[in-house]
Every structure is written in C-alpha cells, then in structure tokens.
Amino acid sequence: MKTINLTADSYYRRLDVCVSDNGGITRSRAQRLIEGCSVTVNGQIVTKPSAEVTQDSVIIVTLPDETELDVPAQDIPIDIVYQDADIAVINKQQGLTVHPANGVNTDTLVNALLYNITDLSGINGVLRPGIVHRLDKDTSGLLVVAKNDFAHVELQRQIQCKDCRRIYLALLEGNVKSDNGVIDKPIGRSKIDRKKMDVVADGRNAVTHYEVLERYGAYTLVRFELKTGRTHQIRVHAKHLGHPVVGDKTYGFKNCRFNLSGQLLHAQRLEFTHPVSGERMSFTAPLPDYFEKVLATLRNKSKETL
C-alpha cells in the first residue's frame, strides 16, 4: 500500500476536488478512492466525494497496490509531433482508443506509447501511464502526454486552472444560427441511457465557446474551445444546440450522407506552458484527409449553387 498525506490549503466544497487538486490524480480516480473507503479526513473515513473540507484538514489517501496487468507495448504507428525529456505531443488518429478499459488491454494509444516512448508518468497507474487528458476514440488530433510525475501534475493543474487552451474543429449538421456563442450547460449521465452523457440539471459545470468558420447550407464548420473538460463535452453541447457533429454515431443523426468511420471532430490546436522550462508552447495539427475530403465536396457544391 502507498499513502498520500495532504493538508487542505483552503476551504473546499468537495473532498474529491481537494484530493484531485492536491494529490495529482484525476477527479474520477479520487471519487473511486473515496467511495472505496480509502480516504480519511482528520482520522475519519469519509465515503462521500461531495463532503466539504475545511482549511487545514488532514487528509490521508491510501492507494492500493497496482496489479501487474498485461498491457503490452505494441508497434502501432502514431504521429509524435513533439518530444523532450518531460512531455510528448501526439496527433492521435481517428479510431484509436486512448487507454485500456473494461478488460481490453491492447490496441490503444497507451500500447503504442509503451512501444515508442521510454518513460511515462505513473500517476494514473498501469492502465493510463502518461495520460493527462483524453480524446474520444473517433476524435482525432492533439493531446499531451507526461513523461514524469512532475510534468503530469503541472499539466493537470494547467487544465484545471484553464491555462491550457484546447481548440477543436467540427462539422455540424444544419445551419447554425449564431456566428458565435457560449454554451454553458451542465453535463452528466443521461437519465435515459446511462451509457451516454447529456445536458442535465444536476450535471457538472461545462462551458464551450464556439465560432462559425464556414457555412454550406445544410452543414456548418465550427471552431470550438473547451473551458472545461467533461466527457463528450463538444459532442453533447453540439447536440444540445440542435446541430450534432456529422458522423457522430452516439449523439448524431442516424442517416449520414458521407461514408464515415466516426465523427468529424478534430483537436486542431493545443497550447500550454512547458512544465519545466516555463516556455509557452503551441501546436497545430492539420485536418485528416477524410475530413478535408468532405469539406472539399461541400465547398464545390456551394460553388455550383452560386
């Protein structure tokens, strides 16, 4: 067993947020540890992630021994945009799951990272080494990977404090009315289908900024910027607008005129401060060929109607 000893540096409305912020672990993992009786506050076991924590509370987090799981290194081609001793920036292809889950331990980005990169942070355990943030399986584009625990904690802090900019391009169904706007709607598990996310009153705060780039009559190319990082955030907010992402098999229209393997959603730009050097870094990834092909078709069709 390994323990993390924390002292709350300020008042927290939620214990899971305090553990996540100060312990360098994800909020979802913090919640699991709390619910599993692995967290004490001032000597008492607390099992409610939403429990309030006062300043100077002493918190002890007990981390269970990690089971050696078979997560093999695999020679899966990945586009490493940048790499140094502390971080790596990956341009993930559509169709690649980020990390093992639900008993499936192969054919993920993690398997590829284990093959291509020597060192990865261990904060998120054996199933998610180096993974600071995620992209959905069928979302392409940029994500940053931590190669040591110091870099991991600092990058995670930047995401939580909104110092990390994440900009996406998406093709949406229909003609979006406003040229720009802010979607400020909480996201949580769907009340109808627990496998899906939805805009729900008791969900977690979720804020997405958007700007229309091009209009093609029945479709709209939109730039999104995340201000929070909820599961499926852009896809759920786009659906809430009444304009789901084209090709989205979970939240989109059933009938898609294009022969697509997944949604046309691409993490185009990633900006953050290097966790060691302090240098502000910005990366841009071009749209995948299949995305560009759809846009070219729509642009040509728009010209024909002029």
Please name the defining characteristics of this protein.
306 residues, 4-stranded antiparallel sheet, alpha+beta
Order of helices and strands: EHHEEEEEHEHEEEEEEHEEH
| Quaternary structure annotation | single chain
Low-confidence parts = none
Gyration radius from CA atoms, angstroms: 21 Å
Structure description:
Helix content is 21%, strand content 28%. Strands 5, 6, 7, 8, 9, 12, 13, 14 and 15 form a 9-stranded mixed β-sheet that branches. A 4-stranded antiparallel β-sheet has the order 1-4-2-3. Strands 10-11 form a two-stranded antiparallel ribbon. With 306 residues, it is an alpha+beta fold. The chain is globular. It has helices at residues 15-23, 27-35, 109-116, 149-160, 233-241, 289-304; strands spanning 2-7, 39-41, 44-45, 58-63, 79-83, 87-92, 140-146, 165-173, 180-184, 187-189, 197-199, 207-215, 219-226, 265-273, 280-284. The chain has 6 helices and 15 strands. α1 crosses α2 (27-35). A hairpin with a 3-residue loop joins β12 (207-215) and β13 (219-226). The termini are far apart.
Quick recap:
This protein has 306 residues and is of the alpha+beta class.
Would you spell out the secondary-structure blueprint of this structure?
Elements (H helix, E strand, L loop, with lengths): L1 E6 L7 H9 L3 H9 L3 E3 L2 E2 L12 E6 L15 E5 L3 E6 L16 H8 L23 E7 L2 H12 L4 E9 L6 E5 L2 E3 L7 E3 L7 E9 L3 E8 L6 H9 L23 E9 L6 E5 L4 H16 L2
